[in-house]
Amino acid sequence: MLTGRKYLLDLTAEQTAFAERIGGACRAVWNTALEQRRTYRRRGAFIAYHDQAGQLVEAKGEPGLEWLAGVPGHCLQQTLIDLDQACARHGTFKVRWKSKTRTRPSFRFPEGGKIAVERLNRRWARAKLPKLGWVRFRWTRPLGGAVKNATVSREGRRWYISFLVDDGAQTPARHAKPDAGIGVDRGVVKIVTTSEGRFHHKVFATGREVEHAAKLQQDLARATKGSNRRKRAARRMGAVSAKIRRRRADFAAKTAHVLTRDHNLIVFEALKTKNMTSSVAPKPDPDRPGAFLPNGAAAKSGLNRAILDKGWHRIELAVRSKARYTGSCVIAVNPANTSITCHECKNVDTRSRKSQAVFVCTSCGHRDHADVNAAKNILTAGRAELAQARPAARAGARKPRNRVGRKANRQATAAQDLATTSPGPAGIPRP
Ligand SMILES: [Zn+2]
Q: Is 185 a catalytic residue?
């Protein structure tokens, strides 16, 4: 199975400067190639990866572009491949520019066979990267497999190296616990609430960190562009948000571990990512033409988002990744009404939800924690979806026309796998 291993790098001053340069070159290549793709698309034409890669090789010889020749060519090519995939997946006009200040530098060495890794002592190891040479990194865990590629990236002021390794593991045919499904409700007050009535929560930014970040934000806004003061504030800000990000990643990994270890079926509610990521519509002021009223945009952007972000999507990604090792089946269901439906009598009523935490059914009087009740409904919906999907999977091949259909088919296949590979019902009630 392919998996990632991330280590903290200890670069020398020259290596740090060189790594910044490589990151900058990859960013420039990304932006130039994206602009070229857009120009072609506007004319109704299309430029493929191979043409762009050819032009990149030619560009290295041109005067004024010597800086391109100095950086590892494979990293630049990999940038073009990544761009090609991003455009294929999201559309040429949806793919974003990489901004100098907002994008963290990151570049990949695609040829794992050329990367030598050596253990130096108990705490340190080193890897030999093309042109960058030997880089020392903090040995916190064994690699556990052959290196496929390596990515160097910076978060705040720290540099990291991540290896993609093949650890040789196989997804088990059935989960160690044959009858243990769980529903997961993601929220703000408690990040994860399960249908078993357990809460997983962590505060990612302390009160002092929030204050500090707000002050830095103010410094950033006041300092002149390009000034040293602004650079310093930006650097400190990067360090604060990197710390918050690390805590979020840690929480996601630990939660995912517990969920996948104990459960063969994990049901999430599908997130409305569109609402979460899109910017807020401007609100014109009716009294003053051309002016705008506060629309809550600040709460959705920048610093606020970093602090308020609970990492819901990251948790699901971590669970899906870990599930490959335990054989858990992970699905996402339509979240409609899960928070206002009584789990006991299935009565749907918004008034049943008395407050953020309290659920009292208006029909049968059933009392529960509101999020636990929702998580139970999510689990029920997941089991129903699997039960429905299984006969469809048996009947086999109707080719789905859209994304939703393809997703349903994948889940059906997962259900079929559960049904055929294990002798028992694998914990999911048969229809
Ligand atoms: Zn009820």
A: yes
